[in-house]
Structures are given as structure tokens and as C-alpha cells.
Amino acid sequence: MFSDILSQLSLEFRLEARNKYALYSILLYVSGTVFISYLSFRGSLNPATWNALFWIILLYASIQAASKSFLGQSRGNFIYQYSLISPQDLIIAKIAYNMGLMLVVAFSGLLFFSLFLGNPVQDFPLYCIAVLLGSIGFAGILSLVSAIASRSNSNFSLMSVLSFPLLLPLLLAAIKLSKNAMDGLDWSVSTSLIIMLAALNAIVLVLAYLLFPYLWRE
Amino acid sequence: MSFISNIRLISKPADKTIFGLVWWKWLSIILLVYSVVAGFLMKVPALPILHETIRNLYFHVTMWFSMMILLTVSLVYSILYLMNFNLRNDTYANEAANVGLLFGTLGLITGSLWAKFTWGAFWLNDAKLNGAAIGMLVYLAYAVLRNSMDEEQKRARISAVYNIIAYAMFMVFIMVMPRLVDSLHPGNGGNPGFGKYDLNSDMRLVFYPSIIGFTLLGVWMMQLLARIRFLKQKQLIKNFR
């Protein structure tokens, strides 16, 4: 089981490395939106808005990045994979891969934000925890929703319609936690939020593990 | 043929009826009439600001209770569908979610009216309210997803999966989130729930029957909607032959 996951994961990474344009387009997407916000806000950006803007850009970039995790696949490819690997292993590999992608997106976003819009974060480790927990949850939900959307006829618009409401609890909790980190509040204030985010992630991952086999079969 | 199984199950012997209706439908009617009459006429605690709006407990809160119960019913049918792939379960899951959505909308409207007279605005940026709105969005997305596929078994399977995720996220959103942040809503953020005002438990005499009445009404509606769909399928097969 473990070696299956690893081989699937390495396949995903090799596919990504082969057509690098996907990753570069996401990075360009993030830097482009950050630059647009830099030009339109013209320096009048208070920390709360900085934080909200960061998460909104991250949300859109994540949907962009994750939407191709199942949508890009041809039918034949799907059937071939079906014969090779169990659905549980596949979804774990997909989520792990998307998690890596989200982390790249998130931290490059953070870099661009600090570059153009300044970095008002006071408690950087806690902010990183918020970004990490947020990315894991995003990866889980988006992988699953991408699998759902790839099954329907009109997929890309459906992807955002289906994922927005599901991502919102995660997004709001992550925004609140990162706002605490930004204001440099004591960690004891944020423990309940961290626990809640971790619990949400656990729910998402368990649901993905249990439900994905039903999505996969034709 | 996928919906043959539906038709066989329709013609099962009818339950015993009283004046043409099953007992729990009469119970629903009686409880609803009682809760409307008693809800408007019975004595309620006299409180500043709230005044008579406290009667909204009998209608607004019951709407949410019934909605949660119906959405749970929908979840159970979705899980059942994934266990035995019987399309009847899918129809029930869908219709339960639809009726739940209707109750949720009514809950939003009654809550909004109440907020206008106590908080001074129809809508406030509040965790509880946003949770409710997002819940509605999740289940609207469920409806959109269903309409985007036409192959029956596939639609049933995929929407069942979405329904389960939606339920989990929705429950997190309206049960957990309001407890983590401040909220103006009674029962959250340090505000006492209405149960605290109800010193001699008189309000419960209307509140609980009202919940049962509205939930039974919702189940009744769900059953009717599902039955209409089964009959349409039957008609379809008849025409086909």
C-alpha cells in the first residue's frame, strides 16, 4: 500500500516536472494578482485587509491549481490507473501531491506579499502554522471536489461553485488564526482555533479516504 | 432498468389510515394548529427589548430544528444509497434536502424579521447568520450538482458523496464556528438562550410540540415530493411501452 502511494506520488511529481508550465502558470497567477493588488491599493492597506487579501488570493490560486488534479485526465488514463492502484492509495497520493502544490503556492504568495505589500506579521511561526493547516484542508477538499466535478458534464464552473461553500469554514478559521498571528497575540488565545483547524482537516481527510472509492468507479 | 425497483415498492400495502390519513399526519396537523394558536395566544415572559418577539422561538427556532432533522434524514438516505445503490434512497435523499432547504429559507426569513425588530437590521455580519447563509449555499450547490448530470446512477452516487461532505462541513459551520467567535445571536457569545427566560417552562409546552409538528410536516412533504417523482417514472415507463 505504502509503495503504491509513493509510486503514484512520484508519478504526479514527474508529470508536473515534465510540463512545468502548470506550476509556473500558478506562480505567475499568484504574482500577477499580488501585483494588481499592489497597484490598486497604492499602499493604503491595513493589516486586516492584507490578511484577508492574502487568503482570498490563496483561495483562488488553490482552486486553479487543484482543479486540474482530476479534470486534466483522459478517460483512458483513468481506467488504466484503476487497474493499477486502489482508490484509497490514489486519493492519498493526490492529496499529498496537492498539499505540496498548495504549500508552494501559499509560501510563494507569502513571499510576493512581503515583497510588494510589506509584511505586517508579528508572529511568523504561528502564521506559518495557519498557512500549513489551511493548505492541508484546502488540498483535501479541493482534491475531492475536483474528482466530483470531473464526473459531471460542466466541470470548471462547477468546481468553484461546489468548493466555495465547503472551503468557507476552513477559510474563516484560517483567516482568524492568521489574524491572531499577525497581531502577535499570545498562543493561548489561538489554541482552540488550531485544534479546530486540525480537527477540520482530520474530518476532511477521513471523508476523502472513505468516499473517494465511490467517486472513482464508473 | 434502474427504476423498476422503485415501482415495485410503491404498490406495497398502505398503512392503516384514519379519515384517509396515517396517524402521524393527523398528529402533525393537530400539533401545528396547536402551536400556531398557542404560540400567538399563550402568556410569555414580559422582557425589555424582546417583548412579544420572544414568540419567534416557536417558529424560527423550530424551523432550524426541523431543517437539521431533515438534512440528517437526507444524509442517512445518502449513506443508505451508497450501501445498497437503490435509487429510491437517492430520491428520498434529494427531496429531504430540498425540503430542508425550504425550511432553512423560512428560518432565515423569520430570523431576519426578528433581527429587524430587536437588533435594528435585517442582516448583520455575525457568525451564526453567516453559517446559516453558507449552509444554504452548500445545499444550493448540491442542487446544481444534481442538475449537471443526467445519468441516473452516476448522479445518485456522486451527489450522495457530495451530500455527506456538505453535511459534515455544514454542521461544523453552524455548530462549532459560532462558539469560537463572538455572536449576537441568543445562546451564543455569552448571550443567554431563550431557555433562560422561560422561568416556569411554559414556553416549552409550545416549543417542543411545534418542533415535532414542523418536522412531521417536513417528512410528509418529502414523502409527497418523492411519490410524485416515482409516479412520473412510472408514467415514463408506461409511455415507453
Tell me, what's the shape of chain B?
globular
Biggest interface, which chains?
A-B, 27 and 28 residues
Assembly form of the protein: heterodimer
Helix content of chain B: over 70%
What profile does the largest beta sheet of chain A have?
none
Helix content of chain A: over 70%
Strand coverage percent of chain B:
under 5%
User: Which band does the percent of strand residues of chain A land in?
Assistant: under 5%
Tally of contiguous helical segments of chain B: 7
Question: What class, by secondary structure content of chain A?
Answer: mainly alpha
Count, helices of chain A: 8
> What is the C-alpha radius of gyration of chain B, as a whole number of Å?
20 Å
What is the first-to-last residue Cα distance of chain B?
13 Å
Instruction: Kindly state the number of beta strands of chain B.
Output: 0
Query: In total, how many domains does the architecture of chain B comprise?
Result: 1
**How does the helix and strand content of chain B classify structurally?**
mainly alpha
Name the average pLDDT of chain A: 84
**What is the alpha-carbon Rg of chain A in Å?**
18 Å
